[in-house]
């Protein structure tokens, strides 16, 4: 059965149909004697979505052949009836958890009906809405426009390169207001440059002369099914059981498209281990879209039956070096269960212009981060030692993060709505997006080890995953869930006061609030700091050479600029903020190496560390009375305790 039919028949009522896009009667603070606010013409309301089905099929033709200008040309033929019609550009994008639809890149919007131009009027309160008055006698309109994709990643990511395309339909379409995304049918086609091929979870009807024509599907499924296309493409089965999961690899260079049989086996093991964890699949077919590229903008974005993943061009050819990206596919794959099938109820919105809320991102992203790392280790994509070294960096970061003093983990769920992932000058103090991933990951380790300890290691968070995400094998229709549902499922595995457990960690705020590190101890480890990282730790903590977070309290960028000053740390105490450049260390030219040498020389002595810094036209000489040496986080085994972490990271045999 098609996804669209499942969704439409079973799920319509469970989507959030709340308005939120309709124009309210906004009180305007004006002099009552002034003339009333004048608009070019009356502005209609924007209809809220209902469960009604939009009559007819929208023909949707996308031309992505204009590589040199990086322009995607779109033509939509929309069946209509005469009278008012509002077209929406998607605003709240799935997986972005925020209003990130790049409407600024939509241009050249032209509407014709019955051979005549039909003028549109943009809504003045919601600029993502275009009002049209369909003339009498017109039964379909043609809407044409361009998606002006970007040449670099400064503001929006690059989606089109000379050898590659990442087609994200929601960035290049308009849809009628008043309907849920599952109630609107699109018949999409995509014209690609000559000789290109592509991967997607959409069903292809024909692929001729560079034009892929897809089976008509609902807007929800279309938006959830992006395309990676390119001049160099390979599709590889990684499903040992059913031939239902594939790597769809596109590469800048054909010479990078060379996974070894061993590497393919590790990706196959990921699918097997995920089956064993959840005990169910919520996809008929899953397509990993994997770009090996320096040119396409980076991405890791989840969908129900596919995911968009960009890694370095040498992902396969320099396997050791790319340890940092070998958890990515495991993370995005986990989202098929956690985030897509089981969806926080407040993110299960009817269409892309109903505002999302994100109160459960610590499950959606936090537990996905947990399982992504666990599954990467269980499948062998990363070794157990690599996984433990990575967890040490997370534990170290939160052990030293002062932002909890004013901002609870729960509040970081709102962070994307504050402006999409604004880079933080004072990350340790501001807190943000990373926290509902990584601090929440520590919380789930805490929960996992608590269940293991409390059940004498007979049960674990695996049982929660199977019960909560693995219910209803074969069912694709998303289920909305609440905080109470999470608590109930945890109680089903191991009765405990889970409400207090979760709330005390999610809402912890103030000077006494501590990072959730209990799970480390229950897992049989302790957090320590070392000045001598092993070669493996250096590969995992790839930024170690420039990392002075745990010593002087900052990171040095490749351009020798101090950044991420640790709030309350030694550099902060010396009144250094972001943006100072390192000119000299003691009496030598400033560099990360010179700084490491100086910190090491000062260890256990009374020698000062003297930095010459420059900001604009100002110089400052700053002296650090710091003698504890270089410090990097490490998880150390506590002998005589049960090594639960190792057990968690071990491949399941069934
Ligand atoms: Zn994620």
Write the layout of secondary structure elements.
Elements: H1 3-11, E1 57-66, E2 71-79, E3 83-88, E4 106-113, E5 116-117, E6 120-122, E7 129-134, E8 140-148, E9 160-161, E10 164-167, E11 175-176, E12 185-191, E13 197-199, E14 204-208, E15 211-214, E16 217-218, H2 219-223, E17 227-230, E18 233-237, E19 245-251, H3 261-278, E20 286-292, E21 300-302, E22 306-311, H4 328-334, E23 342-344, H5 361-364, H6 366-379, H7 384-399, H8 409-412, H9 427-430, H10 433-454, H11 461-468, E24 479-481, H12 483-493, H13 498-506, H14 518-522, E25 525-530, H15 535-540, E26 555-556, E27 562-563, H16 570-573, E28 581-585, E29 588-589, H17 592-602, E30 609-615, E31 618-624, E32 632-637, H18 644-649
Parallel strand pairs: 1-12, 19-20, 20-22, 23-24
Antiparallel strand pairs: 1-2, 2-8, 3-7, 3-11, 4-5, 4-8, 6-7, 9-10, 10-17, 12-15, 12-16, 13-17, 14-15, 18-19, 21-22, 25-32, 26-27, 28-29, 28-30, 30-31
Zinc ion (ZN) binds at residues 302, 331, 335, 365, 368.
Describe the structure in your own words.
The protein is α+β, with helices and mostly antiparallel strands and 654 residues long. 25% of the residues lie in helices and 24% in strands. The protein is built from 18 helices and 32 strands. Strands 1, 2, 4, 5, 8, 12, 14, 15 and 16 form a nine-stranded mixed beta sheet that branches. The protein has a five-stranded mixed beta sheet with strand order 18-19-20-22-21, with helices on one face. The protein has a four-stranded antiparallel beta sheet with strand order 6-7-3-11, with no helix packed on it. The protein is globular and about 90 Å long. The chain starts with a helix and ends in a 5-residue tail after the last helix. Bound molecules: zinc ion.
């Amino acid at each position: 059965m098609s996804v669209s039919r499942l969704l439409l028949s079973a799920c319509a009522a469970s989507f959030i149909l709340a308005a939120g896009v309709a124009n309210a009667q906004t009180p305007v603070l004006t002099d009552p004697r002034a003339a009333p606010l004048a608009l070019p013409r009356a502005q209609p309301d924007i209809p809220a979505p209902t469960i009604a089905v939009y009559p007819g099929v929208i023909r949707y033709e996308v031309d992505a052949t204009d590589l040199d200008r990086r322009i995607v040309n779109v033509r939509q033929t929309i069946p209509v009836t005469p009278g008012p019609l509002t077209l929406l550009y998607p605003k709240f994008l799935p997986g972005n958890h925020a209003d990130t639809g790049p409407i600024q890149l939509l241009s050249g919007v032209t509407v014709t009906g019955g051979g005549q131009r039909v003028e549109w009027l943009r809504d003045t309160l919601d600029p993502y809405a275009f009002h049209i008055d369909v003339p009498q006698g017109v039964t379909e309109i043609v809407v044409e426009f361009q998606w002006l994709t970007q040449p670099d990643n400064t503001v929006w990511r690059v989606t089109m390169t000379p050898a590659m395309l990442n087609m994200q339909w929601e960035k290049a379409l308009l849809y009628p207001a008043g309907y849920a995304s599952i109630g609107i049918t699109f018949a999409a086609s995509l014209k690609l440059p000559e000789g290109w091929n592509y991967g997607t979870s959409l069903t292809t009807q024909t692929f001729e002369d560079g034009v892929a024509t897809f089976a008509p599907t609902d807007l929800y499924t279309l938006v959830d099914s992006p395309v990676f296309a390119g001049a160099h493409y390979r599709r590889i089965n990684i499903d040992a059981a059913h031939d239902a999961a594939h790597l769809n690899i596109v590469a800048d260079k054909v010479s990078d498209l060379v996974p070894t049989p061993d590497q393919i086996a590790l990706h196959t093991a990921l699918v097997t281990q995920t089956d064993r964890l959840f005990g169910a699949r919520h996809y008929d077919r899953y397509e990993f879209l994997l770009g090996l590229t320096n040119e396409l903008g980076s991405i890791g974005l989840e969908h129900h039956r596919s995911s968009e993943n960009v890694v370095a061009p040498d992902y396969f050819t320099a396997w050791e070096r790319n340890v940092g990206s070998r958890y990515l596919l495991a993370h995005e794959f986990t989202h098929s269960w956690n985030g897509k099938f089981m969806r926080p109820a407040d993110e299960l919105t009817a269409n892309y212009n109903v505002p999302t809320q994100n109160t459960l991102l610590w499950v959606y992203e936090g537990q996905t981060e947990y399982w992504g790392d666990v599954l990467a280790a269980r499948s062998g994509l990363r070794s157990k030692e690599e996984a433990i070294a990575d967890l040490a960096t997370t534990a170290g970061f939160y052990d030293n993060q002062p932002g909890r003093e004013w901002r609870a983990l729960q509040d970081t769920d709102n962070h994307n709505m504050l402006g999409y992932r604004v880079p933080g000058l004072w990350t340790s103090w501001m807190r943000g997006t990373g926290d509902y991933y990584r601090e929440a990951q520590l919380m789930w380790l805490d929960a996992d080890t608590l269940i293991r300890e409390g059940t004498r290691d007979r049960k674990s968070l695996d049982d929660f995953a199977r019960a909560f995400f693995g219910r209803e094998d074969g069912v694709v229709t998303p289920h909305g869930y609440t905080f109470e549902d999470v608590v109930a499922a945890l109680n089903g595995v191991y009765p405990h006061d889970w409400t207090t457990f979760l709330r005390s960690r999610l809402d912890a705020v103030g000077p006494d609030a501590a990072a959730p590190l209990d799970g480390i101890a229950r897992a049989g480890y302790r957090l320590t700091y070392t000045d001598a990282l092993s070669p493996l730790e250096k590969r995992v903590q790839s930024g170690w050479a420039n990392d002075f977070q745990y010593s002087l309290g900052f990171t040095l960028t490749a351009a020798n600029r101090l950044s991420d000053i640790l709030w309350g740390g030694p550099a902060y105490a010396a009144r250094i903020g972001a943006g100072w450049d390192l000119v000299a260390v003691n009496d030598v030219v400033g560099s990360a190496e010179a700084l490491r040498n100086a910190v090491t020389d000062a260890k256990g002595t009374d020698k000062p560390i003297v930095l010459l810094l420059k900001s604009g036209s100002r110089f400052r000489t700053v002296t650090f009375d710091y003698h504890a040496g270089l410090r990097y986080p490490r998880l150390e085994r506590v002998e005589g305790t049960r090594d639960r972490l190792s057990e968690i990271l071990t491949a399941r045999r069934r």
